Amino acid sequence: MGKKDTAVKNFIEDNRIFADLFNGAVFEGKQIVNAGMLNKEDPEHKTMLSIRKAVGKQRDLLRRTSVKAHYVVLGVEDQSKVHYAMTVRNMLYDALEYEAQCRERIVTEGRYDLTAEEILSGIAKDTKLMPVYTVILYTGEDPWDGPRCLHDMLDIPEEMKNIVPDYPLKIVSVREWDKPELFKTELGDFFRLLKNVYTKSAEEVEVSPYIMKLTGVVSNVKTLIRKAEKKEGTEEKIMCRAAEELMEEGREEERKNTERERLRADRAEKKNKEIEEKNKKIEEKNKKIEEENKRLKEELARMKAKA
Predict the structure, then answer these.
(1) What are the Cα distances from residue 237, in Å, to 202, 203, 204, 209, 214?
(2) Chain segment 255-267, per-residue pLDDT in tens
(3) For residues 80 and 139, what is the distance between their CA atoms, to the nearest angstrom?
């Protein structure tokens, strides 16, 4: 997992943020998911282990909770890049979660009076499973241009669209999200600032140092990271205009390019001087050799004249 994905995962792992994501993006601001009732799925739980074994990785974040006296399973997949097979991957995650629940039920329910059909099925006739729902949180700069449902991935004739089950994805794209006010935590600040960075907006946003740094890490805007680090450890809010930060980032990059060009020119000049000095020494050496050869010839000529 890359630095960007790790930073976002650590942010969403906070139950307040996790619940706010679902309440704002799925339930349109209604406070349906209670942060205090979210239970983190143990990575070593057999459900998680079966998914990891089948897929080669596990879900980014998974919580069990109660909604209106019904247990449900909520998942979040963080994506900083478009994943063109996300529909299939998410279907597999959900299917394995349901399959694992089926295997859990006989043991946890303590049923030993099952019929032949129930034993064949692996579950009792009246077994109810927990619904599974996953949000794809997309924090990339480019618009999501991948499939948004299973039918988008299928080369399917018109006559079969009504009979082949579809599987839609719930993709929450920060760049495309236009209702940050539905969030009740600093998740809304993160959405606002990151979208402003991507769209080069001049809107002023007041955010915490943590949100500013997180946005800088996700968007790779180093000026945001440095400004946030100066205020780290404080509760002080920072006023930020994304467009100004990007301009400063551009100016800084230009300064760096200028400095790199200067250093490159200095190195080239130094190298040229070294070459000139070396050539000069070679010329002096050749001159001495020529003078010595001339002297030897003159000495040889005098010796012949005497003879």
Answers:
(1) 18, 16, 12, 7, 14
(2) 565 566 667 767 8
(3) 5
